[in-house]
Amino acid sequence: MIEVVIDDRCGGCGDCVDVCPSDVLARGPGGKAVIARQADCQTCYLCELYCPEDALFVWPQTDSVADVTAQQALATGDVGGFRRDSGWDEHAATHTNQHWRMGAIFERARLMAIDAAKTARTEDGRTK
């Protein structure tokens, strides 16, 4: 779950806000990211992946808030680790980026969600 936006690192680009599939993040003062709906976080790490400033910290725990502070996040040494280990941006030369493979998985999930919505409407007595 998203735990913290490290304010002094956030440059306000908004990439994390744009990529979040659950609209967990929003633009706050100065365009900087703020956590708006933490409970909606899917722990997909897309915000961390797209943050060029390594200003976000996602904790792998998905069912409750861990209350990690910026100082605690930085102390883990894991801030920016997902981008690095994924071979994103400046890490492309040293780590292999395989995220291109996720496109088919996301498309399959999208189609399953559409089918589920159609089924729910049919079961409610509404037409497709």
What is the correct CATH architecture of the largest domain?
2-Layer Sandwich
- Our estimate of the beta-strand percent is 5-15%
Number of DSSP helices? 5
- Give the helix level as a range of percent: 25-40%
Structural class by SSE content: alpha+beta
The succession of helices and strands, N to C, reads EHEEHEHHH
The CATH class of the largest domain turns out to be: Alpha Beta
Assembly form of the protein:
single chain
Number of strand elements: 4
Describe the structure in your own words.
With 128 residues, the chain is of the alpha+beta class. 34% of the residues lie in helices and 10% in strands. It folds into 2 domains: 2-93, Alpha-Beta Plaits (2-Layer Sandwich), CATH 3.30.70; 98-128. It has helices at residues 15-19, 46-50, 70-76, 81-85, 102-123; strands at 2-5, 25-27, 33-35, 56-58. A two-stranded antiparallel sheet has the order 1-4. The chain has a two-stranded antiparallel sheet with strand order 2-3. The N and C termini lie far apart (35 Å).
What keyword list fits this structure?
single chain, alpha+beta, Alpha-Beta Plaits, two-stranded antiparallel ribbon, 5 helices, globular
Secondary-structure topology with pairs:
Blueprint: E1 2-5, H1 15-19, E2 25-27, E3 33-35, H2 46-50, E4 56-58, H3 70-76, H4 81-85, H5 102-123
Antiparallel strand pairs: 1-4, 2-3
Summarize the structure.
The protein is an alpha+beta fold. The protein has helices at residues 15-19, 46-50, 70-76, 81-85, 102-123; strands at residues 2-5, 25-27, 33-35, 56-58.
